[in-house]
User: Fold these one by one.
Assistant:
Number 1:
Amino acid sequence: MSALLVRDLAQVVSPAGGRAPLRGAALRELRVVENGYVLCEGGRISRVGGMSGLGRLNGDVRELDGRGRAALPGLVDCHTHACFAGDRVGEFELRAGGAGYEELHAAGGGILSTVRATRAAGEDGLAAALRRHRAWMRACGTTTWEAKSGYGLDRDTELAQLRAVRDAGGAPTWLGAHAVPPEFEDADSYLDFALGEVLPEAVRIAEAADVFLERGAFDALQARRYLEACREAGLALRLHADQFTEAGGIGLAIELGARSVDHLEATGPGGVGLLAASDVAAVLLPVAALFLGRSMPPARALVDAGAIVALATDFNPGSAYCESLPVAMSLACTQMGMAPAEALAACTVNAAHVLGRADRVGRVEPGYAADLVLLDVPDWRYLAYHLGGEHVAVVIEGGDVAWER
Ligand code: NIG
Ligand code: FE
């Protein structure tokens, strides 16, 4: 494998604030090298520095011109539902006319309508849909990503989702407790099935388990039962919680030692304080808040209080039809009071922490995976500044150009 030298870059940018996960002021610390280079060898970054210190390189080295460009770590999307079939464009129109997201769900639409489409797609159809979505994510600069099941809710489709994610290079999360499918009478009898019949197979593929703890989905007791069984089976734990109501998700996440609690649009000061004093990451999904017209999660309060804050898209067909971490970063800065540097660390280093990969991805530093995003502008902050702008020019994965505009 030949080496790749990205040279004459206007900026090389990397989060710098010590060991992951980053909290408080450390979230804002960046290392910016002007007129710099990045050398990639064997799929990893081997050297980073200013052009004046580059010297002569021996051996077979491909070169990429970085003039006028800023390089930053490949982005890490730690919360997506990218493995789905079909769409919900009809519901989108209904919501635009005033229908509520929870109301559509209660009427058998919402998540359950994507369950019908996903079950009907077949394994090949599902894999093809995921490849398409994954390509969209890459074109926005995402090089490491998680995707959840939760649109099968039967054994075969849940496992097909997890395999599709794994085979496409993502981190699979078993969202076996997303909704109660219509063939079950209630949440408890569905959980009997999911934990008895699906978990033993899911645990061979998934890295983590997730639950939707919310009115109309699973309550705190049911979430506890699901998560305890998943933890026992060896999975890391995640929760969708406080999206519409505070229902004890944060306390449960802390008690069970979960990796993260995600959403938090409804979280008040008590929840902020609990999270700040814990090792559970707060994964904020501002696109979902925007898309559903809800208030934004309390990002500024969480960062200032010292919580571990990460940022993700929540890409899914119902509540966040958006695969762009740069858009999430823009919203973080314009709607949630985060600094651009905080937003960047939240969807690189801290998101990598949520996925258990902080030693490998999320920084432009020797030893890290050679996953880079090159922007067609000389200032990396355009990524958040230009709302909906398309400045990702080149995406490098494992030292190879994976995508070019
Ligand atoms: O994170 N809230 C629950 N799950 C997803 C939405 C899934 C859907 O609407 O299809 C979310 O917002
Ligand atoms: Fe989600």
Number 2:
Amino acid sequence: MRRKWFAALLAGALVTAGVTGCGGGDAGSGSGSGGDKITLGFSQVGAESGWRTANTKSIQESAAQQGIDLKFSDAQGKQENQIKAIRSFIAQRVDVIAFSPVVESGWDTVLKEAKDANIPVILTDRAVDSQDTSLYKTFIGSDFVLEGKKAGEWLVKEYQGKNDPVNIVELQGTPGAAPANDRKAGFAEVIKADPKFKVIASQTGQFTRTDGKEVMEAFLKTYPDIDVLYAHNDDMGLGAIEAIEAAGKKPGTDIKIITVDAVKDGMTALSEGKINYIVECSPLLGPQLMDLAKKVKAGEQVPQRVLTEETTFTQEQAKAALPERKY
Ligand code: AHR
């Protein structure tokens, strides 16, 4: 009787957390202990951007290719959904848990639960701010501070030798998310060396096109003399371009635009002269994540930090790279 009650409760928890099987696995039955096949529970942030869609595809395809039973859960941008998903992965006794944290803080309790259950955790794409680094095995993803610095360095070069004030507006990513915090910090650190650079407004656009457009419309109404837009991702930049054009201004010329990601739509706008510079952030983390999952399951040592290799694109470089761009 008690077992039946527990099974019903668990089934309810799985539905609430939106956990679905993928790559040939059965979402309800999962157990990492049977057979050689590794079961990986992955909690994704959501589907807020082109980057995220490409990241999800990379993870799902790599799992299928490498014969990993992937239990995929979409948190729809909510930390509480990720916590529920991680708890359901623990209840299912998956072999490895990976997740891309919506925000940096508030993970210690659930990570401790995974550790107590002896299930290794891999942080993917974004970091957590837990002091206890034994709560996860490794962290694979980009250096977001460096990405912000690269954006700032391009700006400093672009305005070299000019003395007039440069009015910058910033579209931040999701509040509390590592890429929003770090891209802001990296950019600010570089531009603070020259007082002519002034961030006159900085607000979240939630990493989405819709919010990017809406916030940019408000910026344009309040500040008639914007020189530069720094958007923490392509999607917000693309939304802002619509707002700039609707306001009768020319994106890339009247207002210079720097974004992060380098997804196809962003690269297209860059090649058309509507964006001036893009700092790449690669979403193709799937193959490395599967390798790491196999290693931690086998009890092998893995590096604490696995950095993604990335580049930057000017308008000319975007034209050359676009035909081969996969996402
Ligand atoms: O964590 C990576 C960031 O999340 C991407 O740069 C952004 O587009 C996404 O939503």
Number 3:
Amino acid sequence: MCGITAYVGSDDAVDNLLTTLTNLEYRGYDSAGVALLDGSDLDVRKREGETDRLKEAVSEHPPSGPIGIGHTRWSTHGPPSDANAHPHTDCHGRVAVVHNGIIENYETLRDDLRARGHEFTSDTDSEVVPHLISERLAAGSDPETAFRESIAQLEGSYAIAAVIRGEDAVFATRSGSPLVVGLGETANYLASDVPAFLEFTDRVIHLDDGDFAVVRPDDVRLTDVDGHAVHRAPDTVEWTDGDADKSGYNHYMHKEIHEQPVALRQTVRGRTDPTGDGVVFEEFPPGSFDDVREVVFVACGTSYHAALYGQAMLRRRGVPATAALASEFATEPHPVDEGTLVVAVTQSGETADTLAAMRAVADTPARTLAVTNVVGSTAAREADDALFIRAGPEIGVAATKTFSSQVATLGLLAERLRLDNDPDATPDEAFLDGLQAIPEALESILGDHHAERVANAYGAKESYFFIGRGVGFPVSLEGALKFKEITYEHAEGFAAGELKHGPLALVTDNSVVTAVFTGQNDEKTLHNVREVQSRGAPVVAIAPESATEVRRAADETIEIPDAHPELSGLLSNVVLQLFSYHAAELRGRPIDKPRNLAKSVTVE
Ligand code: AGP
């Protein structure tokens, strides 16, 4: 939610800032802005809308200066507008600030600042920050101290970057929102996420909450809030620049759907050993989970659906498991004890609800594990342990390849837990071999155009329902989420058996029902298909090749290769991703930037 960037070098910063802001648009696209510093000149430009509108606005007379900050916004306080766009400045145009997060005590701070003569020009919570800094400067503090003294007055979550006229530096800090420093040869960078500057450097320093950074062209200095030096070792990011571009696809989502065979191979590589230890996690030798008696997942959105899938895989292995919505768990936590493993499933590792759920058990004897895609993310650092899904960067707001890699990782984790809990157990070879076979099966689905044809054929319905049972249930929920997220059509996912308990009242000949078959309990789902057809709705089945009964019953069947029944949902899910993608394309939707959404939801 909101993307922050900064450039500190010797070239003009504007081109770099516009590039890094474009790279960060998945974090928000309600407005964009930059502030360029050239000695004693501070030039702020901002526009409502996507970064392209800002680019147009600055094209004739671009601002200049070798130091700058930038922002792309996902609105929280005040609607999208030029005035509410960041950077925000103080009354004298001396200080400019960009902010990601929510300042909870902003009303009190703003009232006090107004009472002391400050004038405000936006509805945002963020605007208090430049005024606070300005006040501290006026009181005689040096710029670095003024920045720290101002931040110390804030309550809430924030990543903040500021420039001050006459200073050749960017001042930055974080608390609860991500911020990473990029170390270049001739310039240094700051951004909310690494993909922003990946084409310029892969050497990074992940800031911790409470860190303050003073970034200069040839130096990055870190301190705590009292100004004491802090040392953080730089990391080299394994992602490459090419991972974060569109590589000839029209949309990141389409590219990332097609990257799934590669992503899954990376996820699974070196981690299966069917005739030996079963599952090999470098970080967790056999026996690492032998004290785990139950698993509680906390997650949101697509990651929650992956957690539901993980819950099914654990329960089938005799391990008690519950998937909880992180936002609910954060305020109503489940009872946990030393035998509970709380697994936070989060692609970004920065989702505020998921972090809040993890923090809700921080003072209990439960052990926490982050299953995430982002090394150095807050979840990875705050949890007792981290397990990485290794999917590569995902830019499209609609999560695709990370769902597949999350499910595969959770399948491996489920198997590791079963083996650790029962010293006599032997690895489930069929499952582990089945997992290795999924990437090839996915390749054949990606080469098929059936999902596109069906999306076109059923393009004008009023409602879209998705049903499934077993692991087909979380896949149905995920299919519906993806469909509504990018097509803006009414879509709902249900457990197949649940339809007749109420939702069937919504089914008419103006709906289409997509039924997910996995090769297990298919005959029960077929009953539900017939119930739907009797109400006049066409049924599109997604079913394994060998499910001939299904083909006979459904109005349309999209076949998937036969696979291990526990993993077949991974294949159906990719068909549903393609179905949603083509349905959204047909409607001309902005697929990578669906309205009102952002990739990383860093507010509760
Ligand atoms: C799904 O397409 C969404 N982008 C969203 O539901 C997402 O999965 C959710 O916000 C959780 O994000 P996380 O995995 O980064 O925690």
Number 4:
Amino acid sequence: MTKTILRALAGETQSVPPIWMMRQAGRYLPEYRATRAEAGDFLSLCYNPELAAEVTLQPIRRYGFDAAILFADILLLPQALGADLWFVTGEGPRLSTITSPEELAKLKPVEEIDEVLSPVYETVRILSRELPRETTLIGFAGAPWTVATYMIAGQGTKDQGPAHALKAENREVFEGILDRLTEGTIHYLSKQIEAGAEVVKVFDSWAGSLKGADFEKYAVEPCRKITAAIKERHPGIPVIGFPREAGEGYVGFHDKTGVDCVALDNSVSATWAAEHVQSTGCVQGNLASSHMVTGGQALVDETRAIVEAFSGGPHIFNLGHGITPDADPDNVQRMIDAVRGG
Ligand code: CP3
């Protein structure tokens, strides 16, 4: 096996960890901004296979990352299920809300999502032809809880209040949304794999607001179901889980869900995670993305400290969350050089 990311996911400890970056195709890159302008807007870019493949390839050409992540968004699935979706510049996503049994009943059946999502599969096909042979292609979806928080509130929220409220007030509708998303995610990821994705990642960006039994039921259990279904349909395809800000919930996450790799945010220290999370499997992470803005010696020192902390087991270097638009592209190169020993 020549691909370094696949070797890490198979449990191999490597002296230089493979590296990629969440949101590596994004607004901090001038070439991304130019292609997005050509597409018109963000969603048009997501649904234009040629241009979506182009922006996916841009950070690979510029930096030679070990993995490319499909350019798309976790909110395309709710859109394919029938929610209205649009993006307000400078603010973020807006969706039509789902909080009642009637609205839940209006969601489309999972068999129909490909009518909207087929351009995404075409992007994957283009990428699997065009990527360098050493680069791993990662497909992805949002975790049911995280996607549901946007569908219930109609937008991003600080504390996911509306989703927690629906969970308390109408558990049947809440669980109905999660079940439909779980089923839709399995289908969506399977299609990405059939089109050429070699790894899939499940982003549970708001997992940290689920506590105790709720974390087990609505973060662990959907991820376990998705992972089991993917492994049954596509044996050998690795799954990365990202229960962001799970804290102690990261402990045991490999074994409870069956994921091959647990992605870590930067609220946990690498030394703690090496002992308590990497002990059960591959980890990914976890440099604070603010270093991509501030740079300097602190960036180099912290990058080296993370590489060192995880040097005893399988590790994929990454940020703890997506790179932000105000990042300096030169700092990305400094991070890569520090990882690869420059
Ligand atoms: O990582 C990558 O490069 C792959 C593409 C990708 C995007 N979004 C592109 C994107 C991935 C994997 C995502 C995941 C995603 N989308 C998540 C989970 C990860 C996380 O960041 O926590 C979430 C919560 C979303 C929903 C979403 N999409 C929000 C809240 C926003 C607005 C906030 C923002 O950063 O502007 C988006 C827009 C978005 N998705 C952009 C990109 C490159 C910026 C849009 C633009 O170009 O204007």
